[in-house]
Amino acid sequence: MDMAAAPSQNEVLNLLKLIRPWSMRGSSKVRIGNDYDGGYVLPAQVLNCDAVVSVGVGPDVSFDLVLAERGAKVLQYDHTVPGLPKDHPNFIFHKKGWGARTEGDFLGFDDMFAHLQALSPKRAMLKFDIEGGEYEVLEAIRPEHLAFFDVVACEFHGFEKLHDRGFYNGALRAFEKLNAAHVPVHLHANNALGVVLVQGVPIPLLLEVAWLRKDLDQFPGLSTDPIPGPFDRPNIPGRIDLVLNAF
């Protein structure tokens, strides 16, 4: 790591501004999935989605199940599990991960998007938790594919590496790409890990963020809701949640 090239405190603060949640004029929030890790707080427009791309299934499909029960087709991708812990007629599972390109155990997003388009969706959402691989795949995704989704929800990892200029630049490009057609509307720290100090700025090691596409609401200003908010739950039950509004 080249400490001479480390981002400044100001650059770290500017990066975090890109995921600060905005208020929504006409939308409420809902929690989907269980009351611990695997549940997400999202803008209520997600309830209108008839298709979901869910990447990083792991041992929990509670989120996918809620939307499948509402009639959405759920495309699921995970190369690390032998199969689903629970099945549903609307689940379409692929034992593949999301990669920057299609090779081996991974599919590039062009192929995933083709799977989605085969369902002829009217409204779609994208959810992913891929354990640190998110920056590389977001670098490769086409902006017009990202802009197709009403709602995007994901977990970001690796903030202990923000001292590194290369990691910082990758995170900056990822956040800027997500903000091109969407607005961040919900932020929550996963309490599975703690907080790291980067250039004097305290940052949770794991952050969950939800975006809403810009044309689906108006965003009058930065949200004043507490973090965690009323719909949030600790990812690890019995361990206190991380409070961000103090910052």
Taking the alpha carbons of the first and last residues, their distance comes to: 28 Å
Radius of gyration, taken over Cα atoms and rounded to an integer in Å: 17 Å
Largest sheet: 7 strands, mixed
Record field, number of beta strands: 13
Instruction: Provide the spatial order of strands within the biggest beta sheet.
Output: 5-4-3-8-9-13-10
Instruction: Show unreliable segments.
Output: none
Strand coverage percent: 15-25%
DSSP helix fraction: 10-25%
Structural class: alpha/beta
Shape: globular
Total helices: the number is 6
Write the element-wise H/E pattern from the N-terminal end onward.
HEEEHEEEEHEHHEHEEEE
Mean pLDDT over the full residue set: 93
Compact description:
This protein is of the alpha/beta class.
